[in-house]
Specification:
The protein is of the alpha/beta class and 308 residues long. The chain has nine helices and 16 strands. The protein is 24% helix and 23% strand. The strands form two sheets. The chain has an eight-stranded mixed β-sheet with strand order 1-16-2-3-4-5-6-7. It has an eight-stranded mixed β-sheet with strand order 8-9-10-11-12-13-14-15, with no helix packed on it. The chain is globular and about 60 Å long.
Length: 308
């Protein structure tokens, strides 16, 4: 697989991010900070390609972050993907759902929101997080609402012959591979006994860990397939993210293409020599179209269990 170098382009002051482009993949972080960061917004991001966009997570700072970094409003977003249920990843989703149902659809002629979501996680997300604020109908007494009243689900499909739970979906030309991560609790032995959380592998070459503890098996699975990696980090041992001391042990060629995300306010005092750098909110990471050989395409289909 061959890729052109990543283009990192800041928006001009006051410039509004376009949710369409000429077909290159864009990754735009509306936030890069951890759950308690005050100098940055929470780690939430947009994927953009052609006429399609996907908002990956929409945490407690997301409505303001979207306005501050992209000059967009909540009602501009049509498709969501949620990786897990912590507040810095879902805290703004109730607002988005309510605004779409009672403003976007009712007065602006907008369609229902779409969400890329496995059926198993949809149940967790609705019953354990969203239901409390969204179940009661704002207009009809005693009418209970469900997930389907707010979102049209897009179901990713299982990937066969893979060493961990993984799914994939293609939405408007954006190929997204979802893989399970071992995020919480901190004493879980692996992804199997961790609470449901996902990372992303986009268009077969952009790795985004989202939230995970240090997981060498996961990094080894994707390092050679990735042209760029965005990995979450923490600055102390233990807990539920990847410590910087552990990430420093990775091979030089892996660190060289790894941008660090989900970082705390004291990032400037940390030594990340050898890494690609800190991911920056409010800039466009643009990845020109991937050129794939026939042999590589056949290998990828075989990996997914598709006969060729």
């Amino acid at each position: 697989m061959k890729t052109a170098p990543t283009k990192i382009t800041p928006l001009a002051p006051g410039e509004k991010l376009r949710l369409t482009n000429d077909g290159d993949l864009e990754v735009f972080f509306i936030g890069v900070g951890n759950a308690s960061a005050m100098r940055h917004h929470n780690l939430n991001l947009l994927l953009i390609k052609g006429d399609q966009h996907v908002m990956v997570d929409f945490g407690r700072t997301a409505p303001e972050a979207l306005q501050n970094t992209a000059k967009l409003r909540v009602g501009d977003i049509g498709t969501y993907l949620i990786t897990h249920s912590h507040a810095d990843h879902i805290g703004g989703l109730e607002m988005a759902a309510l605004e779409n149902r009672y403003v976007g659809q009712k007065f602006q002629g907008k369609p229902k929101l779409k969400m890329i979501v496995p059926a198993e996680y949809q149940e967790i997300l609705w019953d354990r997080s969203l239901r409390g604020g969204l179940e009661w109908n704002e207009e009809i007494a005693n009418d209970r609402l469900s997930f389907a009243d707010y979102f049209d689900p897009i179901r990713p499909r299982w990937i066969k012959k893979f060493p961990r739970e993984a799914l994939e979906v293609i939405v408007g030309g954006i190929k997204i591979e979802l893989f399970r991560t071992k995020h919480v609790p901190d004493n879980a032995s692996g992804w199997e006994d961790s609470f449901t959380s996902y990372g992303l592998f986009v268009d077969d070459h952009v790795f985004i860990s989202m939230d995970t503890r240090f997981d060498l098996d996961l990094i080894n699975e994707y390092a050679n397939r990735s042209s760029v990696m965005f990995h979450d980090v923490q600055f102390f041992p233990g807990a539920v993210h990847a410590p910087l001391t552990d990430l420093r042990t990775l091979p030089d060629n892996v660190k060289a293409k790894m941008h660090l995300i989900h970082y705390a306010d004291n990032w400037e005092s940390q030594d990340i020599t050898g890494f690609a750098g800190w991911a920056t909110q409010g800039v466009r990471y643009v990845f020109p179209k991937v050129v794939t050989t026939v042999a590589e395409a056949e290998l990828e289909l075989a990996r997914l269990g598709v006969a060729v």
